[in-house]
Amino acid sequence: MKTILIIEDERDLLDLIAFNLEREGYRVETAVDGTTGLEAARRTLPDLIILDLMLPGMLGTEICKILKKTEKTSRIPIIMLTAKGEEIDRVVGFEVGADDYVVKPFSNRELMLRIKAVLRRTEPDKERDKIITIGSLSIDTGAHTVTSDGEEILLTTTEYKLLLNLAERAGRVQNRDLLLKNVWGYNYIGDTRTVDTHITRLRTKLGASGDLIKTVRGFGYKMENS
Ligand code: CA
Questions:
Q1: What confidence tier does 190 reach under pLDDT thresholds 50, 70, 90?
Q2: Fewer C-beta within 10 Å: the chain N or C terminus?
């Protein structure tokens, strides 16, 4: 049974989401402010976190940043809840490493679909354990670890999937739509700038190995062969 932590200060909404998740067979943990939410995430290590943006105590974006930077919690997928019209927060949500976002008000069906999609794409693929080495970059697909010049690089699940997609097809150009489909899922409703944002973050995190990811103007991205 998968555990989902909901961090939301609107009690009615929190209760409603919890009720719907339990009905779908998930185990639910809840927190109503930022500080206890962060504490609950560290203590329970849930399979997924639904994280409201505006929270008393600590903003959702801050919590997201902290969790994604900590090894123990960096792979927990996070869906951010943002209020309608907070256009800028969509971008911020991704810049801090959130795996997806849902805009309020949302239907139960929409939230459940997003949760299932995020859980599906962040599930480790145990059938293809191997080590891919490109230049100073090494990806261990069994351990889900990435090293650059021998230094381990901490990536979010989405960043890792994006890197793996590029590395497995090294030398070939991949367009943004294909990356969106392969990394974010068939039914992902988003635009291709999402891919660009994540590529930028990935390059920064990879340091010198980040140069291996080339932009192919007007088309997409390519990872060098060596
Ligand atoms: Ca709120």
A1: low
A2: N
Q: How far is the CA of 67 from the centre of ligand 1 (A)?
A: 19
Q: Determine contact, residues 114/102, Cβ cutoff 8 Å.
A: yes
Which residues 6+ apart lie within 8 Å of 30 measured at CB?
A: 5, 6, 7, 8, 14, 18, 40
Mean pLDDT of 115-125: 82
Q: What is the pLDDT of residue 92?
A: 63
CA of 59 to the centre of ligand 1 (A): 9
Contacts of 108 (CB under 8 A, 6+ apart): 16, 20
Ligand 1 centroid, distance to 50 Cα (angstroms): 12
Name every residue whose Cβ is closer than 8 Å to that of residue 139 and which is 6 or more positions away in sequence: 131, 132, 133, 145, 146, 163, 164, 167
Domains and CATH numbers, the chain: 3-122 (3.40.50.2300), 131-223 (1.10.10.10)
**Quick one: pLDDT at residue 43?**
96
The percentage of residues in the chain with a pLDDT greater than 70, rounded to a whole number, is 90
d(CA 177, CA 224): 20
Taking every pair of Cα atoms in the chain, the longest distance, rounded to a whole number of angstroms, is 54
Distance 55 CA to ligand 1 centre (A): 5
